[in-house]
Design brief:
Blueprint: E1 3-7, H1 8-15, H2 21-30, E2 34-40, H3 41-49, E3 61-66, H4 77-87, E4 97-98, E5 109-112, E6 122-128, H5 135-150, E7 159-165, E8 173-178, E9 184-185, E10 194-195, H6 196-202, E11 222-226, E12 232-235, E13 239-240, E14 253-259, H7 262-276, E15 285-293, E16 299-302, E17 308-313, H8 314-321, H9 327-336, E18 340-344, E19 348-353, H10 363-374, H11 394-408, E20 412-413, E21 419-420, H12 422-425, E22 451-452, H13 457-466, E23 474-485, E24 493-504, H14 510-523, E25 537-541, E26 547-557, E27 560-568, H15 570-575, E28 582-588
Parallel strand pairs: 4-15, 5-8, 5-15, 20-23
Antiparallel strand pairs: 1-3, 2-3, 6-14, 6-15, 7-14, 8-11, 9-10, 11-12, 12-13, 15-16, 17-19, 18-19, 21-22, 23-24, 24-28, 25-26, 26-27, 27-28
Helix pairs in contact: 8-10, 9-10
Length: about 600
């Protein structure tokens, strides 16, 4: 969970009341938060730099507060204070609106070129007018950006924020992607201009910025934002221009959020402008910006600041939580959580979700807020109406028994990755990928994790490759799940629990694997079927590119095909860089439950 550092005296001033540490801790808990630590700024600095420090009475007290990961609106003092004051029913819920001041004669626009699609395709913008920042609010503004970068922005890889003094630049703005050598500007707090490539070298050893360089470092084009006079505003996600930096004297702020995920960009922008629009000359008012993408006729007006409506049943909500309350009080409790609610048609409650609450996606999220407003400690403990006894899943119990017996048979258990490459489950095993019912990862981090495994054999063969220096024979096994694409299931895929084992020696040792199969069937109380009927198990000759020709058999148990066994094909061994013959077995154990 994110932790924010808030100055105690500044927070109490915003709340209009002082609390003891215990009182504020109880207030945080009643609001669904946790006061993690009471410290000082100097003590925090001492811990970070590994120096000793004693607390002095004159030092400023800092509250470190744990914030739920999905509550982006509480990541700064402004949002936190507003939420608590509404919760305490001391102020009405803020109403955020979009408006262009009468003194502004034109609608600002951001033009996005086609080349941006190759590196960082989306941008959303907004303008805050008539701001009056203090040192504390300025620091909070910067800190919120950093929290959003680390949290929803995933260290700027998904979202990065640029803020600029609107009085130093002029629209319309251009969002482009250009070669590093064509970019030249003076970065924030620097005294001379650098090219794009030189900026990357400049910050290669920077304590904070060096971690963001790999996001665009290998790209032939760098994202760049210009104003109407061809003045660089920023090079996202790395650094802003020194020309448009904001200060305590800044009255109008232009905010641009570039991203690889448009939804997260909009959430980030909504969070930022809603938190700090309270400092605008016209409170809670944000000036929108039109975003135009080259090659399309659509113009997006951002931020949207949408108010969404959801309808819940009062009885369903209270029964879900385990409390008794009237619809009117349910609506009042939800309104304390910034969810304006009204009773409609007896038991139905219309809930208005503000643009600050992107965490509300389902009725159960509203129920959670109702629980917080009611008070977790006020919910009476009751005995469940349906008594149940916890027990191990039969499939897991069977898996554990088989693991124990396989270990007793001299095999060593392995635990391999559930994700693997496309080649691991297809080409290396002699199959075409189109013939494999594999679930593909849409955005794999590396080529090693492109699909979910459809077989346990690739993981075992990789394990053998990593242990080639171990003395022979090598006998390893794994009992785990594979995932198979299945259009008949709700999610389009299903898990299947399998057992796989490999024997590796100077000879293939097919008899060892065959003996292991007989032992497994003996444990499962499945007899050998002499007449090859639907009772018992037997082997049937099969052809499989993974196994050596005429050295492969399908295993039939109780009339069902449960897997295969055989001598692994030399081509497969070569692709996994193995030079000793191997025999293997892989079966589905779910039919034996």
């Amino acid at each position: 969970m994110p932790v924010i550092n808030v100055k105690r005296d500044v927070l109490f001033k915003a709340l209009g009341q002082t609390y003891s540490d215990d009182e504020f801790q109880k207030l945080c808990f009643s609001f669904g938060l946790e006061l993690d630590e009471v410290t000082t700024d100097k003590l925090i600095h001492a811990k970070e730099h590994g120096t000793e420090h004693t607390i002095e009475t004159s030092e400023e007290i800092i509250y470190k507060i744990d914030i739920p990961a999905n509550r982006y609106d509480l990541l700064c003092l402004e949002g936190l204070a507003t939420g608590i004051l509404v919760f305490l029913e001391k102020i009405p819920r803020p109403h955020y609106k979009l408006a262009t001041p009468a003194s502004v004669k034109k609608v600002e626009r951001m033009i996005v070129t086609r080349s941006c699609k190759r590196i960082r395709p989306y941008v959303v913008c907004a303008i805050l007018r008539g701001l009056n920042l203090t040192q504390d609010s300025y620091d909070s503004f910067i800190d919120l950006q950093d929290k959003l970068h680390q949290n929803i922005g995933r260290k700027r890889s998904l979202v990065s924020i640029g803020t600029h003094d609107m009085d130093t630049i002029e629209g319309p703005f251009l969002y482009d992607a250009r070669p590093p050598e064509d970019i030249c500007f003076k970065p924030l707090n620097q005294d001379k201009e650098y090219t794009g490539a030189e900026i990357m070298e400049l910050y290669a050893h920077h304590a904070q910025l060096k971690q963001y360089l790999p996001i665009i470092n290998d790209s032939p084009l760098y994202p760049i934002i210009y104003d109407n006079n061809n003045v660089v505003c920023s090079m996202p996600p790395i650094i802003n221009s020194d020309h448009s930096k904001i200060t305590l004297n800044t009255r109008n702020i232009f905010i641009e959020v570039t991203a690889t995920d448009l939804t997260k960009a909009k959430i980030t922008l909504d969070t930022l402008v809603c938190a700090f629009s309270q400092y605008c000359e016209e409170k809670y008012t944000v000036q929108p910006v039109e975003v135009y993408y080259e090659g399309t006729s659509e113009i997006q007006r951002v931020p949207e600041l949408k108010y969404r409506m959801n309808e819940i049943n009062s009885d369903a909500a209270t029964d879900y939580i385990g409390i008794k309350e009237t619809p009117e009080n349910v609506a009042r409790l939800l309104s304390k959580m910034c969810l304006k609610s009204e009773v409609k048609d007896g038991k139905k409650i219309a809930v208005e979700i503000p643009p600050t609450r992107h965490d509300i996606m389902h009725a159960c999220d509203i129920y959670e807020d109702l629980s917080i407003a009611w008070g977790y400690n006020n919910i009476k403990m009751t005995i469940p109406q349906t008594p149940t006894i916890g027990a191990e899943l039969p499939l897991n119990k069977l898996s554990d028994h088989l693991r124990y017996e396989l270990a007793q048979a001299g095999f060593t258990e392995t635990l391999t990755f559930a994700l693997c490459s496309r080649d691991d489950v297809s080409d290396k095993l002699g199959w075409k990928f189109d013939e494999i019912p594999a679930v593909t990862i849409s955005n794999p981090k590396t080529l090693e994790f492109q699909v979910v495994r459809t077989s346990l054999l690739p993981g075992l063969l990789k394990t053998l490759n990593a242990n080639k220096k171990m003395p022979l024979p090598l006998k390893i096994f794994e009992v785990s799940d594979v995932v198979l694409r299945d259009s008949d299931t709700e999610v389009g895929a299903r898990n299947e629990r399998r057992l796989a084992a490999i024997y590796c020696n100077t000879s293939s040792g097919f008899e060892i694997i065959h003996g292991l199969l007989d032992r497994i069937m003996q444990l499962l109380e499945v007899k050998w079927s002499v007449n090859k009927t639907n009772e018992g198990y037997y082997l049937k000759a099969a052809e499989d590119p993974t196994y050596f020709p005429q050295r492969c058999a399908t295993i039939i148990a109780n009339g069902k095909n449960i897997g295969k066994m055989g001598v692994i094909h030399p081509d497969v061994l070569q692709k996994f860089e193995l030079n000793q013959p191997c025999s293997a077995i892989e079966i589905n154990i779910e039919p034996f439950l």
